[in-house]
Amino acid sequence: MPGIECLGCRTDNPPTAVACIQCNAPMPNDKKKIRMLYKQLLALHERFAKVDADGIGAREAALHDRDRALQAQEKRCQDVMEEIQIIAMALQDEKHQRERMTSDPSFDDKEALRAAWEEFRVKEKMLQAAKSIANAAAVAESQRLEAMKTEFDRRNMALAEEQATWAVTKQGIADNALAQVASLKKKVDLLKQKLKMEKIGKASSDVASLTQRTPPTSGDEIKRFKGSTAPHQASSTIDDMPTSEVARLKQKIATLQRTLASEHDIMTKRCKQVPALKKQIQDLKAMMGREQQHAAAVQHDLEQQIAQLNGSFAAEKQALLTCQVDYQKQIAALKHNLMQGARTMAQDAALPLRLTVLENERTRLVADAAAQQADFDVALQQWAAEKSEWQSKVAASDLNVASLGRSLANALQELDALKRDKGGHAFAIASERHRAQTQIACLASERHRFLAEQTIHERQVAELTTSLAAAQAELHSVRQELTK
User: Fold this and answer.
1) CATH node for 4-102+351-483
2) What ranges does the record give for the region Disordered, renumbered to this chain (predicted)?
């Protein structure tokens, strides 16, 4: 039910509010509010009555439909019973005719009939023995096939694990070989760089020694030096040089000679190490080639083993499928023979027993149908009683609504007299609102209770319908057996 709108903040307030819940402004107290509440109450009551009337009409129609369906099912059961009686009478006539034939003095084939019966019993026993043997063989074969399937799955899992292990090993070998090759390449690059730097240093030292002027130390050198000098240069001899300068030059020459000797030794050692390094590189390359060849051989062997296993598994699977097809054919033939034997036995010896079983089944179905019909009648009576009770409650609620309308009309008449006293006016309106809301809550609770009871009754009717459908299915199965 909608509330009362505040004139100040336009907030939708509950009908029983004295002040606005948003701005705390006093709510209007006039006849318009009471008229609106009365109209809303009448509209709610009309809607509730319409919904209940529609629901009651629909439920009554559903009950009538179900009653007609039950009557149709009962008629069908009676037809089936009549058919069963006709078939039973025919079987009884056939039985009497056979008895008359066997008791007739002119019937002199009793010995042949007895021999045929004994032969039939022997064949029946042989058929049962063959059936048990075939069942045992089928169970054993199924167990063997299951064991072979388990072994096949286990081999597949082991092969997958071996392939994964080989892939990891192969990756590790490849990574190790690549790491060794990379380290060797780094060593070779470092050696080449060192040799290059040494060659550059040696060449620079040679150039420096060639370009540097060394003073002559002997007389012949002094003469050659004098002859090689330009005319404008001043001539000088070692005798003219001071002693300290000569000593310094000699010391410098000795130092240079020692440096050259040490560098020559270092270069000689390094040159001797180069063949060993080359040999080590060649050995590593050969080892990596051998590792690659070994890995390729192992991979080839594994691929051959996998191919062999796949071929053996395919052959075993084909053999299993062939055996399965053969056993299925044998089982189908045995089932066919069993069905023929069962038909022969049913035609020759099981007619009285079958008639008794069908008669018992018919009696049970008739009793079940009668019990279900009685339960359904009791449920219909309960539903009628509850319906009358609910109608009385609805009439009482209508009387309550009418009394509420009269009380609201009286409140409208008393509104003019209560205008002078605002406090009394507000209290009267609040009390009327509270009483109206109480009546509405009572009607809503009654409606919810009625809906719950209606749900329970519908569930009971559904259970009865299900039981009748089951009885109909049983009658249909009995009819099919009789037609067979």
Assistant:
1) 1.20.1270
2) 206-239
